[in-house]
Amino acid sequence: MFNKNSLIVFLIFLAVFDVFVWQKIIFGKSGDKSEIYFLDVGQGDSQLVVLPGNVKILIDGGPNNKVVKELDYILGSTERYIDLVVMSHPQYDHFAGLIDVLNRYKAGIFIYNGREGEILAFRDLKDVLSERGVPLIALVGGDKIRYQNSKLEIISPSEELLKSKELNDTSLVMKLESNGLKALFTGDIGIKVENYLLKNFDIDADVLKVAHHGSKFSSSELFLEEATPEISVIEVGKNNYGHPTEKALSNLLAVGSKIFRTDVDGTVKLSVSDGEILIFKKK
């Protein structure tokens, strides 16, 4: 496992290498835009962030290999490298698809919160990371990743939340700032963590990855009134949980947020340049 002091040095090398190699073989893409893809992986979470310079960050991988099909569609047949793979927390609908991703793509670093999964599939994930020689690094609230003018700040979990028996409370919550955009990635956090964030951080965001697939345990009125997202994306598929709930949807509408859902809209792409957001839907 890398220590945190090594991360910045590694990322500088990684970014330079990535730009040198991939910009020579990728064509038809602007290098000065930031892109966020909310991938349609069914009842699960997966987001792909592409920073200026074609630096790629994959956050979660959904519950199955559907994530690989989405990545192949977006990245094409020649790209086989992802700079950072991030697991928000070790629950099946967030990490299982990463096993297929790591078998198909080379990853620079694997980032997680340090908590071990409680199901057998997590052992398979650790095995493939070991077999592929991917370095693991544990990050928690207060850690930051910078690349040029882009910043990814970890704002949760705290050391105390990381000890919670409820794995959802341990989700890595990340705030991205890039090209004038502020986006908040919330994993499966509930109201307890939302209240912690309200008290300790600036959570104002243009774009919100809605927590826990729009469950009744997240997206409280107070949290959304402070975040005031212009765009909210719910990653959800066919399920028996009632996701997204009417309460979550009404709370989002109450703050004037435009709502997208992967079960209705398919993969949602946001393209950002100088604070201007263009939205594309796959369906």
TrEMBL record:
Pfam families: Lactamase_B (PF00753)
Protein name per its UniProtKB record: Internalization-related competence protein ComEC/Rec2 protein
Domain Metallo-beta-lactamase: 40-234
Organism annotation: Candidatus Wolfebacteria bacterium GW2011_GWC1_37_10
